[in-house]
């Protein structure tokens, strides 16, 4: 018999939800203990990297499982991927500890119950199809995890018990990182939209969600406080996710450590600060780490190593999977530079946005001058008391408005134009998109600010409403083609 309090993420554990409605789960005094366990589960994961929830007899098995399901609901409402990653790793480490104590027979049952890979036990080893193995080990980057180093016989990979358990830690982590917006077993029992579901959860756990987000921010800031002017919000996913693993006590493989060191060194971070980032690693040795960091940064070798290109990060397993901006650039330092676009002066930003909007093969000097004179330069500031309007009304105003819309179209691309009197091009990474409300569609001025563009792209991908601060501008495209377009100034964060 499976002990679901140990593995509450197993699909069959959701049987404990039978007959329980969402409102009771969130409000009923009978489930107060489950809600408390959910909070403990999340708070200890976010702050300590562990799950401090004791099993029976201290806590009832049903309360533990329901607490896990409630924690998933809270994660869906929080909508914070860094928090999801912290929790996923903590859950996986907890499961790994319990898997190690199981009999071989139970280990097979648990692995197969999860439904991601399928194993058999015979002749003292665990056997699985090589396709399952490749899928499970895809993000385990050390060389000994490569299929070629495992041995394959007739399409079957054979593993020692300890190797299977370590593999399952990774399987569980990846599975929980790809967290759906809400558990299907909950959605099936809830009448209403996904937004209604999230709203119900947010009302119950408003303070807790705010506290969790604060802990995550503090945890990230603590790791980065030694890095001077380095801005974590501009860093690419490959850096952020490896940093999260490092903070959570994961032993990073050499390619990941090399990348973190070269990336930060390229941004003029001193070797001492970089070295301190690795102090949370379980195998940390100061003398060895110092030698590696100072050698890579050029302090002792005389040669500063360059940060690897994106294709190298993909081939070595450092890249966790690209976002929209990643697909448009070829180097992680380019990502950081593009994300710093909003720090340019208003005049430069205006020119670059107009170039992106006009999309001319040759530098459109007259059109740039005419549009700059017409609009006076884009104003990226706005008052705190922005009026909320319908999009149809906002397009006719001369000031900023707050509007709630859907993104009907989104596309990122790189645009270049030859600069006059210079032997170089202006390269612009831009995001083009349209807004829609009801039957009305609104064209927008392309964005070069990808901090905002990535949030807009996420709303498009998830087909969810988004609250934006916008201001309309008339743009002359030439040949008497004058159009009024929205400039997206900012995103209104959910309270």
Shape: globular
Kindly state the percentage of residues in helix: 40-55%
Mean pLDDT, rounded to whole units? 86
Whole-number tally of structural domains: 3
- How many individual β-strands? 10
Uncertain parts:
none
- Indicate the radius of gyration in whole angstroms: 26 Å
Order of helices and strands: HHHHHEEHEEHHHHHHHHHHHEHEEEHEE
Residue fraction in strands? 5-15%
- End-to-end separation in angstroms reads 44 Å
Tell me about the largest β-sheet: 6 strands, mixed
What would your notes on this structure say?
- The protein is of the alpha+beta class and 495 residues long.
- It folds into three domains: 11-211; 225-339, no CATH class; 366-491, Beta Barrel (OB fold (Dihydrolipoamide Acetyltransferase, E2P)), CATH 2.40.50.
- The chain is built from 19 helices and ten strands.
- It has helices spanning 22-27, 32-48, 61-78, 81-99, 104-114, 130-136, 161-177, 184-187, 194-224, 237-247, 254-266, 271-277, 286-296, 310-315, 332-339, 346-358, 365-375, 391-394, 450-462; strands at 119-122, 125-129, 152-153, 156-159, 387-388, 401-418, 425-437, 440-443, 466-476, 482-491.
- Strands 5, 6, 7, 8, 9 and 10 form a six-stranded mixed β-sheet that branches.
- α12 crosses α13 (286-296).
- The radius of gyration is 26 Å and the shape is globular.
């Amino acid at each position: 018999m499976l002990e679901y309090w140990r593995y509450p993420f197993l699909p069959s554990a959701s049987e404990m939800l039978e007959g329980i409605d969402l409102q009771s789960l969130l409000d009923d005094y009978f489930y107060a203990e489950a809600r408390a366990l959910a909070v403990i589960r999340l708070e200890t994961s976010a702050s300590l990297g562990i799950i401090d929830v004791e099993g029976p007899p201290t806590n009832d098995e049903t309360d533990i499982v329901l607490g896990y399901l409630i924690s998933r609901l809270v994660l869906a409402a929080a909508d914070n991927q860094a928090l999801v990653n912290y929790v996923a790793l903590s859950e996986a480490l907890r499961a790994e500890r319990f898997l190690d104590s199981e009999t071989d027979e139970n280990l097979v049952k648990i692995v197969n119950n999860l439904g991601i890979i399928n194993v058999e036990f015979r002749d003292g080893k665990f056997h699985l199809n090589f396709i399952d193995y490749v899928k499970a080990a895809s993000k385990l980057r050390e060389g000994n995890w490569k299929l070629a180093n495992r041995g394959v016989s007739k399409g079957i990979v054979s593993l020692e018990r300890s190797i299977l358990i370590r593999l399952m830690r990774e399987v569980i982590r990846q599975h929980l990182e790809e967290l759906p917006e809400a558990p299907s077993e909950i959605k099936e029992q809830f009448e209403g939209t996904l937004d209604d579901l999230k709203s119900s959860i947010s009302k119950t756990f408003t303070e807790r969600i705010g506290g969790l987000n604060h802990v995550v921010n503090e945890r990230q800031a603590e790791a980065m406080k030694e890095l001077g002017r380095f801005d974590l919000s501009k860093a690419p996913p490959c850096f952020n996710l490896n940093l999260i693993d490092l903070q959570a006590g994961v032993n990073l493989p050499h390619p990941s450590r090399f990348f973190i060191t070269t990336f930060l060194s390229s941004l003029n971070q001193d070797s001492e600060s970089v070295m301190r980032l690795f102090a949370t690693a379980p195998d940390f040795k100061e003398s060895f780490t110092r030698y590696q960091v100072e050698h890579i940064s050029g302090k002792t070798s005389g040669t500063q190593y360059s940060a690897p290109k994106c294709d190298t990060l993909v081939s070595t397993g450092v890249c966790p999977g690209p976002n929209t901006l990643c697909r448009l650039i070829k180097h992680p330092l380019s990502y950081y530079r593009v994300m710093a676009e909003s720090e340019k002066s208003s005049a430069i930003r205006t020119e670059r946005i107009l170039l992106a909007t006009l999309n001319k093969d040759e530098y459109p000097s007259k059109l740039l001058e005419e549009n700059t004179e017409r609009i006076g330069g884009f104003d990226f500031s706005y008052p705190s008391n922005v009026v909320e309007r319908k999009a149809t009304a906002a397009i006719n105003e001369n000031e900023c408005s707050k509007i709630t819309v859907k993104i009907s179209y989104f596309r990122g691309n790189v645009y270049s134009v030859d600069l006059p009197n210079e032997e170089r091009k202006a390269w612009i990474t831009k995001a083009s998109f349209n807004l829609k409300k009801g039957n009305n569609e609104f064209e927008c001025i392309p964005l070069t600010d990808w901090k905002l563009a990535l949030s807009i792209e996420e709303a498009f991908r998830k087909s969810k409403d988004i609250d934006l601060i916008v201001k309309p501008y008339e743009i002359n495209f030439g040949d008497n083609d004058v159009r009024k377009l929205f400039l997206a100034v900012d995103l209104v964060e959910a309270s």
